[in-house]
Write a structure and sequence with these properties.
alpha/beta, six-stranded mixed β-sheet, Rossmann fold
């Protein structure tokens, strides 16, 4: 009797593992840009001042880890994408047009483009499917981009981007957030550098 019982337990468990392994390869990327389409923000000849801030929802968890991942992802994007000829990245608390104008006025460098990136969502998501053994997960990135052309003190354009990568059987954590923010920024700002085309 014990051997028969063991077989009954092992076979379903093995089936679940096989199905889960098959589903891991089902990750897809979905992008929503509003309004759309948008011309590239990146300009390989431009000198840019890039501000970023976070506006999380009130119940956002692990804020410090998400903001550390955001800082790393933004740095990696600017260092590797060739988006701008040169740049300065600044973390700020408030990104109103008046605040942006004040920050621009406080710099000693000349910039011909100012880009403001507001992060609203950056993190892993997990949803249970009909079976508790199956999940639908991935990473969700939501950001707003405002572009200014100095000395203009109001945005010349504003748009939002929602970038999602995942699918059935996908589980992600905070460790991959910098890489996935970088991928979302490539989609949002559209650099021309071949090195920026790496998959997340």
């Amino acid at each position: 009797m014990p051997p028969t019982c063991n077989r009954l337990i092992l076979l379903p468990s093995l089936a679940v593992l096989v199905v889960a392994a098959m589903l891991v390869s089902c990750a897809t990327t979905r992008v929503d840009i509003s309004p759309s389409p948008q011309a590239p923000v990146c300009d390989g000849t431009a000198s840019a001042l890039v501000f970023w801030a976070a506006q999380w929802r009130p119940n956002q968890k692990d804020v410090s880890n998400r903001e550390a991942a955001a800082q790393t992802g933004l740095k990696e994007f600017l260092q590797t994408s060739g988006c701008f000829k040169n740049y300065e990245l600044r973390r700020v608390a408030v990104l109103t047009p008046t605040g942006v104008a004040s920050e621009v006025g406080s710099t000693n460098r000349l910039f011909n483009k100012v880009v403001v990136i507001t992060l609203r969502e950056l993190g892993p998501v997990i949803k249970l499917l009909s079976s508790l053994a199956l999940i639908d997960g991935g990473t969700d990135v939501v950001l707003q981009v405002d572009e200014y052309t100095p000395p203009v003190e109001i945005p010349t354009r504003t748009f939002t981007v929602r970038w999602q990568n995942g699918g059935p059987g996908v589980i992600k954590g905070v460790a991959s957030l910098p890489q996935e923010l970088r991928a979302a920024l490539i989609t949002a700002l559209q650099p021309n550098s071949p090195s920026s085309n790496a998959a997340p």
